[in-house]
Amino acid sequence: MNIRDLLTSKVQQAMLSAGIPFQHQPLVAASKKSGFGDYQANGAMGAAKAMGTNPRELAQKIVGQLELEGIAEKLEVAGPGFINIHLDKTWLGEQLASAQSDPRLGIAPVQQPDILVVDYSGPNLAKEMHVGHLRSTIIGDAVARLLEFQGHQVIRQNHVGDWGTQFGMLIAELEEQLGEEREAGMALQDLEVFYQQAKQHFDRDSAFADKARDYVVKLQSGDPGVLELWREFTRISLTHSTEIYQKLNVLLTEADVRGESAYNDDLAPLVAELEQQGLAVEDQGAKVVFLDELADKDGNPSPVLIQKQGGGYLYATTDLAALRYRAQQLGAQRILYFIDARQSLHMQQVFTLARKAGLVSEDVSLEHHAFGTMMGADGKPFKTRTGGTVKLAQLLDEAVDRASALVAEKNPELSEAERADIGRKVGLGAVKYADLSKTRTHDYVFNWDTMLSFEGNTAPYLQYAFTRVQSIFRKSNTDPSTLTGDILVATEQEHALALKLLQLSEVLDQVAKDAMPHLLCTYLYELASLYMRFYEACPVLRSDVRPQVRASRLRLCHLVAQTLATGLDLLGIEVMERM
Ligand code: ARG
Description:
53% of the residues lie in helices and 10% in strands. The protein is of the alpha/beta class. Among the domains are: 3-87, Arginyl tRNA synthetase N-terminal domain (Gyrase A, domain 2, 2-Layer Sandwich), CATH 3.30.1360.70; 115-123 and 133-161 and 261-368, 3-Layer(aba) Sandwich (Rossmann fold), CATH 3.40.50; 166-251, no CATH class. The chain has a four-stranded antiparallel beta sheet. It has a four-stranded parallel beta sheet with strand order 6-5-10-11, sandwiched between helices. A three-stranded antiparallel beta sheet has the order 7-8-9. Helix 1 packs across helix 3 (55-65) and helix 17 packs antiparallel against helix 21. The longest helix has 25 residues, at 224-248. It is globular and about 85 Å long. Bound molecules: arginine. Arginine binds at residues 119, 122, 124, 159, 161, 319, 322, 337, 339. Arginine is lined by residues 119, 122, 124, 159, 161, 319, 322, 337, 339.
């Protein structure tokens, strides 16, 4: 249990003993300023107001009932009725010691793991993965890692776009190019180029266009030859994405792919079911559901098109089928979607309709975790200089090149191999962290210089902080896992650092709940800054430091390093021994 939860339950008990009805929350939070204790319980004011009593007196009464022997060394009532909790330094030291000797840093897995589906990345296989998929891939992966670390059963779902009319054109083109003795891997080496070739072919050659249309029909009716071509196309396109996942240190594999095509057979029965329920109606030959729940301000219901006039199905139809599969087949209790904010209405429609049609039960949590757009320096969505979409693979290569140059400049002694390894970790870390550290729902400006800076809230700063801690162990020739003895929380800097270290699990809980990885970034940045303060004020290896103090500080250093490494790992960012 983390400190906040522990104090919350203690204060809640005290409130009950003080005669305060259960519905009043203890409102325990870490104190923002030193001098107000380590934590504050702020629930007395609200309770007093509701009960018509004096808040300071009520706070005092709660303090009288609070059983925190051995945990807190001082409790005081401040201001209009805040309860300031000063934690016991010996107790803090004990918590730190058990965290330092535990690979999970003292954070136990959740007692009741949930089955969670995380939907992220979802590139369109007809095209090359571009920067538009970067945010979903990075943020979704971080949250999935974190939920898994907490002990949940996480099922990753990569809902790739592998179905639809454009595939008719693409596989017709593939067939022609294969006929010219080109090998599929070669033809599809650059999907952007291939797409352009197919499109031009389609526009200038009407026989080819007819064939493309015919192939759409054949694909949908399961023609074996056409299916074979389609399989070849999607297989190769998927390897492009998989390469990017590996490069980016994103945990998605081909086993996580369950694309739009997987739901193909479910769509006709699903539409029939919605019609039977009286939800779907004919509208100019198409099938539509009108949702009053999402009516506009004039009261017009929100229309969801689920089948086109010609019989084709839509993005929403497939998402409904996917949602049902996830809830009913996979048994998910929470389904988290990491998709661009521009699809918010789509997700709202799908969620509302799915509930209404009983495809998911009420107790399943459906969550669209939307994010803003990645902007260029000009304040417009990120594009190439000529206005084209930026290929993800190119962007990542550039990140590694830039970071390698920077690393070489800072440390010319590194071997070629070391520089390449460090450049890769720093460059990719910088791109990921720049994205993760911004409030998810906002747009953000992509800027090489700020993300690669060794100062400020960046990946290189944190990676560097990690190497600085590690260098202490090299210098002193100590194996941190063999360190024993008490951890002493004596100085003000040790105290601040200790508290921060013990708050990791509170932060993880918050990120897991809100799917907001920037909270973890802020935490790591603050931790690194407190460490720097500690390091300046509290000598570790200096000869006049008593052995007991040195061992204690070394243990603190080690816990800092482990916390940074674990936190960055949950964000999908690697650390290194030196840089
Ligand atoms: N393929 C979609 C796109 O590129 C993203 C898929 C997101 N997931 C979903 N279940 N709709 O916009």
